[in-house]
Design brief:
The structure is a homodimer of 150-residue chains. The first copy, chain A, is built from 5 helices and 6 strands. By secondary structure, chain A is an alpha+beta fold. The first copy, chain A, has one domain: Arc Repressor Mutant, subunit A (Orthogonal Bundle). A two-stranded antiparallel ribbon of chain A has the order 1-2. Chain A has a two-stranded antiparallel ribbon with strand order 3-4. The relative contact order of chain A is 0.10. The interface between A and B is large, with 86 and 86 residues. Strand 6 of chain A pairs antiparallel with strand 3 of chain B, so a sheet runs across the interface. Chain A binds a DNA duplex (30 and 30 nucleotides) through helix 3 and helix 4.
Amino acid sequence: MQRTDFSEMACSIARTMDVIGEPWSPLILRDVWVGFSRFEQLQADLGISRKVLTERLNHLVDRGVLERRPYDKRPRYEYVLTDRGRELLDVLMVMVAWGDKWLAGEAGPPVLYRHHACGEISHVDLACAHCGKPMHADDIDILPGPGAAA
Amino acid sequence: MQRTDFSEMACSIARTMDVIGEPWSPLILRDVWVGFSRFEQLQADLGISRKVLTERLNHLVDRGVLERRPYDKRPRYEYVLTDRGRELLDVLMVMVAWGDKWLAGEAGPPVLYRHHACGEISHVDLACAHCGKPMHADDIDILPGPGAAA
DNA sequence: TGATGGAGTTCCTTTAGGGAACCCTAAACG
DNA sequence: CGTTTAGGGTTCCCTAAAGGAACTCCATCA
């Protein structure tokens, strides 16, 4: 599959897709987040091809989202989230909120989030980083920014 | 089946990926959002292969994210976001926030968001739908939900 | 009666994902 | 000291999906 390179597009969605848009990448991040940090663990938990897992891990390390580090005298490595990576979890949490709402069906959501601050089972919602009020697609105007395409 | 089917996994991330995880899908939603709603417009703006565009549009309509509707007596169609689709834009907005922060580089973000409520240039942040306080990956406990895997 | 234009199809080439087998290295075992 | 063992990958082959250009269909318009 020859695939278009999204990384050079003047669009933060495309650029973010270049980092985590390949199949499996978000699930790898989820797994690392919940504690599956080693190659064998990831492979077993996800059922992903070892070849593809290698490619994805390298790509995520390349992009600064994961860090590969030894955990033993022997050549053993684990993958941990960097700051960049931890912030990417925001994207996953919104995907969870959407999937729970629209795709969970009769069975209900596979996992629940309990928010430390209030102790309640909840989910994420979008707020304005400036004023704190709700901020969704219909609540904004889009303006050209400094990095807009020529 | 050569590509793994994410739709049956007991994971809302995987299920959401099944809907918008294929290459181009998020960019198509972005374009529809900002007003490119017709086949030719999308093809020209994205530079996507017509074949793939057809597949993606069908898939997104199938999944209830877009609606295909005639806009002329002639066989002409446009694609519009459904409720499900409009809520998916939340995912895109968080990707934009992350991409703007980590990938925009010297040039700065390609587009800016002005929030209607406060009038300021801003971006989205995650809040708890219950208490309104910040809610990120480190602020929650994960518990098994009713739809957890057997 | 063409010509036009939107909205797709068809067909071919190239490359990425799936899957199983294989390899390498450094302990640990006997 | 030779052999297992186990984590962490490579290699190889096969299939399916992305790119891209050309082609089709069909209702109006000139």
